[in-house]
Amino acid sequence: MALFIKLFLALTLVSFVRGLENGLALTPPMGWLAWERFRCNTDCKNDPDNCISDRLFRTMTDLLVSEGYAAAGYEYINVDDCWLEKERDSYGQLVPDRSRFPYGMRHLADYVHSKGLKFGIYEDYGNFTCAGYPGVIGHLETDAATFASWDVDYVKLDGCYALPQDMDVGYPAFGRHLNGTGRAMVYSCSWPVYQIYAGMQPNFTSIIQHCNLWRNFDDIQDSWASVESIIDYYGNHQDVIVPNAGPGHWNDPDMLIIGNFGLSYEQSKTQMAIWAILAAPLLMSVDLRTIRPEYKAILLNRKIIAVDQDPLGIQGRRIYKHRGIEIWSRPITPVYQTYYSYAVAFVNRRTDGTPSDVAVTLRELGLTNPTGYRVEDLYEDVDYGVLSPQTKIKVKVNPSGVVILRADAQPAYQYRGSTGRTPYEPLNEVYRLVSKK
Ligand code: GLA
What we know:
Blueprint: H1 3-17, E1 30-33, H2 35-38, H3 54-66, H4 69-72, E2 76-78, H5 105-114, E3 118-124, H6 140-149, E4 154-158, H7 167-180, E5 186-189, H8 191-197, H9 204-210, E6 213-215, H10 224-236, H11 238-241, E7 250-252, H12 265-277, E8 282-284, H13 293-299, H14 302-308, E9 317-322, E10 325-336, E11 339-348, E12 356-361, E13 373-377, E14 382-387, E15 392-397, E16 402-409, E17 434-435
Helix pairs in contact: 3-5, 6-7, 12-13, 12-14
This protein binds alpha-D-galactopyranose (GLA).
């Protein structure tokens, strides 16, 4: 075999070996996760509708399908903390709370699967989960086997009550046990965030190899201040964070809290847009029984979901920040010659109560394809047509709101001969805002 071919094969192999070899999460996982909205409510006696119980997860499973979330791509129903009995059984196995999960986890997983969805569970690498239930340490192999026997599809492994120094060994070990079961399970890690809290520098090369997603920063809370702090963290640390994302391995800025109590409509749009730019897992934590239609529409915005799920899996960056205005941009498909398409989000962090104008040429945004970009707004039904790099676009961004555009790189005009029309020449066109309505 020619040396060149050998070299090519070796390089290809290297690029395949990067990342957990379970073949999962080639785009960021999407689904529903109990924690932010339902917390550790175990009081089924007084609050049967909202406690962490078999019933809650079956209800959310039904709604994920009947309300159109599953059709839009949300596929995981994920249990978080507080599902366990406080003690393992006499064989050392984990036991779901007997009164709140009376049929066991396999039965619940079967139900979720019967609706065409996937089932996720929560555990913790340490002695206890964050809420004080038994952790996996000392039982790694048993617990991985238990999850496989319950037909679990996704495991979130938290890091409370563990030594951050042990995680470089412990997280990969549990991941190997998961893989060793022969059942493919998405592996969500909290490994870097606990190490960062402890002042350590996480080994992201190893984290990428062993986890499908991982948390870098604080738990999201039901407030705009919390969402802002996450946006700032990801912007301020992007040089370290962004290169770690790619198909099969994602940064997790935590759940979507859209539809709860803390975010305004504008702020909810901003969370969705920035999470898509960040190539974030889209895990809704919201009561799907009571969510208002306008918030539901944000979560179901297929154009923004398509940005999040772009197959290239390149995480976006904050490319501009000045006087409360930020511009975030993410390379996406289609790629024409050497030119990416882009999703571009303009965020207004100002609190003066009137929209701010932002005007910028595509070239200033780094969009330089000489044959132009087809630009559309992903929330408003506005099509800007095909714009050349020197076109200046102007958007109005509401306080704590966002405008998100998609700019698809256009191929060169191909003259088709006999139409009699003047060949399209993007550089000479005068572009006007065209509303589709
Ligand atoms: C930690 C995690 C949260 C949640 C809770 C549960 O704080 O970061 O996402 O899982 O534990 O106790």
